Amino acid sequence: AYVIYTSGSTGKPKGVMVRQRSVVNLAGALQRAVYARHATPLRVGMNAPLAFDASVKQWVQLVSGHTLVAVPEEVRASGDELLAFAAAARLDALDCTPSQLKLMLGSASWQRPGHLPSLVLVGGEALDRETWAALGAERRVAFYNVYGPTECTVDATAARVDEAGEAPTIGRPLANMGLYLLDKQLRPVPVGVAGEIHVAGEGLARGYLGRPDLTAERFIPDPFGREPGARLYRTGDSARFLADGQVEFLGRIDHQVKVRGFRIELGEIEASLVKHRAVREAVVAVREDVPGDARIVAYVVPERRSRPEIEGRPRYELPNGLAVVHQNKNETDYLYQEIFEQQTYLRHGLELPDGACVFDVGANIGLFTLFVKQQSRRARVFAFEPIPPIFETLRANAALYGDGARLFRHGLSDKTATASFTYYPRYSMMSGQSEYARADDDVEVVKRYLVNQQEAGESGADVLLEHADEILAGRFEGQVYESQLRTLSEVIRAERVERIDLLKIDVQRAELDVLRGIDEADWEKIQQVVMEAHDAPGDETEGHLRQITSLLEGHGFAVVFEQDEALGGTDRYNVYASRDAARMRAADATRPATDARPSPLAQIAPLASPDCLRDALKDELPDYMIPAHFVILDALPLTRNGKVDRESLPRPDAQSVAGRTNFVAPETLMERTVARIWQDALRVERVGAHDNFFELGGHSLLMAQVHGRLVAELGRPIPMVEMFQHPTVSALAKHLSQARTEPRSLESVQARAARQREAMNRPQRAGRKVNTGV
């Protein structure tokens, strides 16, 4: 039928000759195992390039009457764009690699209501346990894990994820295919014992084009076959049978490497890394960037909540443990105090019941949206932010902690229109519709706030007030953006909202416009309202409080408004309205006590350094399997067919070495001497007093080099074992300094000899994890 080139795990391309009958069998086998279980015909995504064998199982669906939709190459590497294309093309079935699937699962679009393919086949790489569990819990999509080398005509086995158990499996053979797990003597292994996967049946290729030697090596006589000339294909993959007959994939046999005399399964290190809840994906490789110095390097893609940066912007940790993206520190601290600590939006009896529907109008960077998600289980939040730079920050924070919040890039008003918005990059919470922008007035608000702080005895307020003009210079230099306006009632109709438990409005002098955009029939759907209102004598906002109160009371609300003491003398007021007048009267209007509870949303801290990964691996793996370098990536590089491109993994730099978060400079002459020698040997930019030789990527061979240089510089013998016993700069320097000044007693010599014997015997003790750094 065709010849297709594959390099497999060897990196050397070879042409695989695939027979017509094998392609026909693939079509029929997939129809029986997968497609027949779903309504047909389907719109099937052509997601793989024609040069890769995964494309065969996609275009072959034409013979079953399905429609083929070509997926553009430019969208394949983005989860958001791939999902957007699938929705626009109304794809029913999509075939992808686990790497592509994780991009989609990590996209905020996946969590939103909308079109998803009802059928997804996943193949080309192994599925990890965490992703398997996520797929099994997904009820909108049927996932199938498929396995097979190019030499077996794409797929040899299949497993529907939600029917195949709690751990990842590759399922059972497809129709007219056979699968054997054999040892090196080609004997079947027992259930639960690892063996090499050998595939038989109609899917086997004829062999390799022009390579009879390689064909004979990989396509061996089938000792179990009944047909003359039957063959088995040796895959080079390791697996084991489970008790229920499912096959558990274990990894590539040729992913076993030897580093400094130790045989290491790279897949075992990868499996241990992805168990960490901060890790989404991990690939481990052995690099020899310096000849003769092979090192294990781990490439890690953190879960989104664990990334130290989002889209190139460092995250800022709030007192409750949430680590957000923000515009600037001062206003974020102010907003946090106002929303989380003082709970300004929940005074006078206003509450957030479980399952609350909340409209966050003027969402800014999203702190109130996150507050709602913390306070109300299963809350539905509709957040509106029309200014593009602020919206992007809101989007990032909602993706971290928003749990399905609906985000809108437009503002709300009394009509549908396009309007100008003024954005203050250094004071984003004062940004708003240009029609209502009053930079001079906003400066006076800040000054009045500082005066109030000074009168209240707040520390430092007098100094800030004295330099207010200097500090505020440039704070209100604005940028203008055009954005859309809609009415609140338009959104209610479009989103089919039946009830709004809390309408929160903070739109910088445009609050009346938002209220006027509510149709008469929609007012009864709103239960509570809280807003910042503006009312200044002699200004166009004069009388707004009276108008707002009249409007709300006319629709059945009890209304209270007040002014925060810190904003006394300004045009800022808070308005509270509820249909439960008795509750408002009974409620204590004083500020709630500071809510210092850690947020339940902050379950995964940002992965600021690889230290926690190293520590976690130490609990599972011997020291010689601990990577010397951890490289944190936003995404793993992929080949055109969506698999991990190991050739493009970057070379680790000095900052990728673990254990470098708390740098303390060496102080004494001996510490500086030791650090300088380590720095040269380890090829790192700097070495601190508390750095550990082995955690900086050192090993026993490098330790021998360091030992030789130290002996030469100090001009006296140093027992090698003492280097292992004191693996940090400060510990070794202190020991060497003491050893030069203290006389050696018989007892000290005997104790040192005992320590040497202990250190030399330690690596041979079964089960012990020793820090030899090998």
Q: Can you give the mean pLDDT?
A: 84
Percent range for β-strand residues: 15-25%
**Spatial strand order of the main sheet:** 26-25-24-31-32-34-33
- Helix-and-strand structural type: alpha/beta
Give the N-to-C terminal Cα separation.
51 Å
**Which consecutive residue ranges, at least 5 long each, have pLDDT under 50?**
742-746, 762-774
What spatial form do the alpha-carbon principal axes imply? Answer: flat
Percent helix, as a range, is 25-40%
Give the beta-strand count. 35
Structure characteristics:
alpha/beta; 5-stranded mixed β-sheet; 24 helices; 35 strands
Structure description:
With 774 residues, the protein is an alpha/beta fold. The protein has a 7-stranded mixed sheet, sandwiched between helices. A 5-stranded mixed sheet has the order 5-6-7-8-9. Strand 18 and strand 19 form a beta hairpin. The C terminus is likely disordered.
In short:
The chain has 774 residues and is α/β, with parallel strands linked by helices.
Task: Describe how the helices and strands are arranged.
Layout: E1 2-6, E2 14-18, H1 20-33, E3 43-46, H2 56-59, E4 67-70, H3 79-88, E5 93-96, H4 98-105, H5 108-111, E6 119-122, H6 129-137, E7 142-147, E8 157-160, E9 172-173, E10 177-182, E11 195-201, E12 207-208, H7 212-218, E13 219-221, E14 231-241, E15 247-252, E16 256-259, E17 262-265, H8 266-274, E18 279-290, E19 293-302, E20 309-310, E21 313-314, E22 316-317, E23 323-324, H9 329-341, E24 357-361, H10 367-375, E25 380-384, H11 388-401, E26 406-408, E27 411-413, E28 417-423, E29 432-433, H12 439-455, H13 461-466, H14 468-472, E30 479-487, H15 488-495, E31 502-505, H16 511-516, E32 528-534, H17 544-554, E33 558-562, E34 572-578, H18 581-586, H19 611-618, E35 629-632, H20 669-682, H21 700-714, H22 720-725, H23 729-741, H24 746-761
Parallel strand pairs: 3-4, 5-6, 6-7, 19-35, 24-25, 24-31, 25-26, 27-30, 31-32
Antiparallel strand pairs: 1-2, 2-12, 7-8, 8-9, 10-11, 11-14, 13-14, 14-15, 16-17, 18-19, 20-21, 22-23, 28-29, 28-30, 32-34, 33-34
Helix pairs in contact: 3-4, 10-11, 20-21, 20-23
